[in-house]
Design brief:
The structure holds two protein chains of two kinds. Chain A is about 55% helix and about 10% strand. Chain A is an alpha/beta fold. Chain A has two domains: about 80 residues, Orthogonal Bundle (Methyltransferase, Methionine Synthase (B12-binding Domains), Chain A, domain 1), CATH 1.10.1240.10; about 120 residues, Cobalamin-binding domain (Rossmann fold). A five-stranded parallel beta sheet of chain A has the order 2-1-3-4-5, with helices on both faces. In chain A, helix 4 packs across helix 5. Chain B is an alpha/beta fold. Chain B has 18 helices and ten strands. In chain B, the strands form two sheets. In chain B, strands 3, 4, 5, 6, 7, 8, 9 and 10 form an eight-stranded parallel beta sheet that branches. In chain B, helix 6 packs across helix 15. The chains are: A alpha/beta, B alpha/beta. At the A-B interface, helix 4 and helix 5 of A face helix 5 of B.
């Protein structure tokens, strides 16, 4: 019979076919679906997260691992109509008004999704009001903002002010990032945190939402 | 509509390694004030930007004050250090391109002060104007129509009328697809983005820019693969993607950047185009480069090697913040002047000294990073020699990637390049991906459109038709 270690290794290797095969094997042997997820798939993704944080894996390799995990989750879903994949939390993500840079933001979104977060990516050049509307609609745990220009970073403050004005600020955590952003700037504008790259953004989200790991 | 190149490059402008050196280009560019770029002197090019602030009608007085302060300090320092001449780049921000009157006003502030220093102190200078490619504000972007596009051209024209000498831009056509290619390290998509979308957009944009240059008696400088190769460089620097991918991608940008020269650009091209040495080898145009002095804007592994065949030496961009010595733009002006002074002094002692300096600059970086290795002058000439044999830009782009993979493998095998195992693995993956690319772009387009996110860009803006779905349903 397949074991959890092999499954987590398949996820780590980004081997979708093997992850599917092992998941089927485990399920047909009577292993509980939640255990397959928590002790096999999520453990694999946690190793991926650790290696990525230590610069031992590249983004495309992380994405392959996430795809392998998702393929296995699909197998679990097929067998259980009421199955719901546990989520680490919800994140509203966007590049602030006047700023068109999106590759850094996209990477943050991908890394968060790979770590079990549900991400609502609003895109680039996002007005403060649109962030407010998205918070009302999606009720996220985190609002994550990106800016690459010194002339647009002040829009982060404008967005936080708009969230305060709408009475939503206390219900969420706000994190920011981008080339000109610093922890000092985050403190100055009243953000809850700053991350210098996609890997630390995920760590920050986990810290702020109290989610250490889905397997815990 | 196909925008036909006005020039083609079927052989190298620089054929011998001994003729490939900094400061001298086969086709130097002479400006109205007599400054010659690529005529034997390396000139510093300073680029600067605003500190954190919003740009709108109400903040424009402060914007004017900032630019006045920056240019005043820069020129004063250049005068005091006896610079043989300087180039000033005004890289406009989105708001100052969308509102051409603001960009033109800033341009005039800078140029008038530069004229003043030339008249009073004999400090010669040139102004490069680089509007922002604001087309991407609209998502998905209109590449060939609309107010955003027209504002770019108006900015070029009006800035040239108030004295801008050199026209440049960082065009973004194909960037949406290339971004997608980068995060997944998919060289097939990258080659499509560069060799089909990028080349077509460059031809369109540069046909108009060259016309403006003719009308305004300004210099159509050149473009850069900043949004492509430099995004890869930045991601590699953060360990997000393999460095070998960034290196192969850089060489694959060559046919795209070359397209501006095929449309009539003459150099100096844009500083952040690290593919510049390939432009110089192929076209003979002078090039602007940036390296260690651009660490204020982004980190790189190319600090020295970037200078080894440059004709203009730049700092990319620095914010107007106060350092212990002086405002940052003034400090960077000083650094650039000293770098150029050393290069020019070595060359003044004789060609063999310039070549020695070139090799020191190249060899000090090239072993340590694949992105540096592919900028080694001998590697540049070797690859360029093969690229000019291809008339078709798409085939040349594919070939560029294949040649880069081959060069890196050869360099690693010969012990000339240190590559960790995790990088070597990716070199093999990229090589296999390149081998799977057909020689016909239409075949690749047909194949890729099923997996590309077509909601992010408009194929019709590149004269492309979406036919895969129709073809599939037609059986």
């Amino acid at each position: 019979m397949a074991n959890f270690e092999e499954l987590s290794q398949a996820v780590l290797d980004g081997d979708g076919d093997k992850a599917v095969e092992l998941t089927k094997d485990l399920l047909s042997s009577g292993v509980d679906a939640q255990d397959v997820i928590a002790k096999g798939l999520i453990v694999g993704m946690e190793k991926v997260g650790e290696l990525f944080k230590n610069n031992e894996m590249f983004v495309p390799e992380v994405l392959m691992s996430a795809a392998a995990m998702n393929s296995a989750v699909e197998v679990i879903k097929e067998g259980q109509n009421d199955f719901d994949m546990p989520s680490s939390g919800k994140v509203v993500l966007g590049t602030v008004k006047g700023d068109l840079h999106d590759i850094g933001k996209n990477l943050v979104g991908m890394m968060m999704e790979s770590n079990g977060y549900t991400v609502y990516d609003l895109g680039v050049d996002i007005e403060p009001d649109k962030f407010v509307d998205a918070v009302k609609e999606y009720k996220p745990d985190i609002v994550a903002m990106s800016a690459l220009l010194t002339t647009t970073m002040m829009e982060m403050k404008n967005t936080i002010d708009a969230l305060v004005e709408a009475g939503l600020r206390d219900s969420i955590k706000v994190i920011i990032g981008g080339a000109p952003i610093t922890q000092g700037f985050a403190d100055e504008i009243g953000a809850d945190g700053y991350a210098e790259d996609a890997a630390t953004a995920v760590e920050l989200c986990k810290k702020l939402t109290g989610v250490e790991a889905l397997s815990a | 509509m196909d925008y036909k190149p006005v020039k083609t490059f079927s052989e190298l402008a620089i054929k011998s390694l001994d003729d490939f050196v900094y400061g001298i280009a086969p086709h130097p560019v002479t400006a109205k004030n007599g400054m010659v770029i690529g005529g034997g002197t390396v000139y510093p090019e300073i680029n600067f930007t605003l500190p954190p602030m919003t740009v709108n009608e109400s903040t424009m007085p402060e914007v004017r004050r900032q630019y006045n302060e920056m240019i005043g300090g820069i020129l004063e320092r250049a005068k005091d250090l006896h610079a043989p001449g300087i180039i000033v780049e005004l890289e406009l921000l989105p708001p100052t391109t969308i509102e051409p009157k603001w960009g033109v006003e800033i341009c005039k502030i800078l140029r008038d002060k530069m004229y003043e220093y030339e008249e009073k102190y004999g400090l010669k200078s040139l102004l490069r104007i680089t509007p922002n490619d604001t087309r991407e504000i609209e998502r998905p972007p209109f590449m060939r129509r609309g107010e955003l596009l027209e504002s770019i051209f108006v900015t070029f024209e009006k800035c040239a009328e108030v004295g801008a000498d050199i026209l440049a831009i960082e065009t973004t056509g194909g960037k949406e697809v290339h971004d997608e290619a980068l995060v997944t390290c998919d060289i097939r998509k990258a080659i499509f983005a560069l060799g089909v979308l990028g080349v077509r957009d460059m031809r369109f944009m540069w046909s108009r820019i060259v016309d403006i240059a003719k009308r305004t008696d300004s210099i159509p400088g050149g473009d850069t693969a900043c949004g492509f190769g430099n995004t890869a460089l930045a991601l590699a620097e953060q360990s997000m993607i393999p460095r070998v991918f960034a290196a192969v991608d850089r060489v694959a940008t060559v046919p795209r950047t070359l397209a501006c020269f095929e449309m009539g650009a003459v150099g100096p091209d844009k500083d952040c185009g690290y593919e510049g040495p390939y432009m110089k080898a192929i076209t003979g145009a002078p090039i602007a480069m940036e390296g260690k002095t651009a660490a204020c804007a982004h980190l790189s592994a190319l600090g020295n090697i970037a200078a080894c065949v440059c004709d203009v030496w730049s700092n990319e961009s620095v914010q107007n913040v106060k350092l212990l010595s002086a405002p940052a733009p003034v400090a960077y002006m000083e650094q650039l002047i000293y770098d150029c002074r050393l290069l020019n002094e070595a060359a003044a002692d004789g060609k063999e000294y310039a070549l020695k300096m070139r090799d020191w600059l190249a060899n000090s970086d090239s072993k340590l990073d694949p992105q540096a290795y592919i900028l080694r002058p001998d590697v540049v000439l070797e690859i360029s020699k093969e690229l000019v044999k291809e008339a078709d830009a798409f085939v040349a782009t594919k070939k560029a990637a294949a040649l880069a993979v081959e060069a890196l493998k050869k360099g690693a095998a010969a012990g000339e390049l240190e590559l960790p195992a995790k990088e070597k693995k990716w070199l093999d993956i990229i090589g296999s991906q390149v081998d799977s690319i057909p020689d016909n772009w239409e075949e690749l387009w047909y194949d890729l459109q099923k997996s590309l996110d077509l909601s992010k860009w408009r194929p019709e803006e590149y004269d492309l038709e979406v036919n895969a779905a129709k073809a599939v349903s037609a059986g």
